[in-house]
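FAQ: What does the model actually see?

It sees only this:
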Amino acid sequence: MLESKMIKIILDSAKKIEGLRLIKIHGGQFSAGQPDISGCYYGKRIELECKIATNKPTKLQAENLKLWYISGAFCAIITYDESQPLVFTVSPLEDSDFRIFRIGKTKVDLHNLIEGIKNYV
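And it is asked to produce this:
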């Protein structure tokens, strides 16, 4: 799965959840290092960085996530591992904490992600 496909699955699923608004942040010279997905859930800012397999955020991406986190946003790195095709790992910035969310073949179970966000509000 390409990162762009992963992002599309998340955005399509988010449309069905009341109170949740997510948008794709398109890369370019003026948005370098910004998280892939930005949004809001009932007033709580969300910043999500999507990665495939063992890819990690760049130094600039990690710094931007940290700045959003310090500002009070829920920030997470969502990783898709092709060896486990039904599992996304969602990692908040604290390295000691992570959650695994099971997904269907065509859509992310974002209700579990929202539960994770609620726990950090």
